[in-house]
């Protein structure tokens, strides 16, 4: 091989290696990307099927049903309600009528199967995405003539 051909081969190898590395990094980033959806968005099929995402809203009062370590409850944004199933120990701050963000996937039966449940920090805090979803739900309720008071949003 001539020196010029060797340089071209080395440059070509470097270009291929950088391309493979960029592909692997972008693939890892895409698989770890998790979006937030409100119950209204999940009900209207805006949430991805077969992909992990976050569902946020309020735990509906009277909806918590425990069966050993499996907990079923409803998450609402005051417009739509989504059933959630979680297997594990819930955070101490998890309560009815309080804000919650659950991470998981929607099953074939329409139930959101959570792998992780996050509760709000104190009585004035709510994740920004959940607060925005609740405010949007309140605006929708005002348009259709309903008046619902949501606890814990600071309103």
Question: Could you characterize the architecture of this molecule?
Answer:
With 155 residues, the protein is of the alpha+beta class. Helix content is 34%, strand content 27%. It folds into two domains: 1-33; 36-144, Nucleic acid-binding proteins (OB fold (Dihydrolipoamide Acetyltransferase, E2P), Beta Barrel). It has helices at 3-32, 39-43, 128-144; strands at 36-37, 53-59, 65-67, 70-76, 81-87, 99-106, 112-119. The chain has a five-stranded mixed barrel. Strand 4 and strand 5 (81-87) form a beta hairpin.
Second-tier CATH architecture of the largest domain? Beta Barrel
Q: Tell how many strands the DSSP assignment holds.
A: 7
Mean pLDDT: 84
Looking at CATH, the homologous superfamily of the largest domain is Nucleic acid-binding proteins
Strand neighbour order, sheet with most strands = 2-4-5-7-6
Number of helices: 3
- Quote the distance from N terminus to C terminus: 76 Å
At CATH level 3, the topology of the largest domain is OB fold (Dihydrolipoamide Acetyltransferase, E2P)
Radius of gyration: 22 Å
Q: At the first level of CATH, what is the class of the largest domain?
A: Mainly Beta
- The class by helix and strand makeup works out as alpha+beta
Unreliable spans are none
Order of helices and strands: HEHEEEEEEH
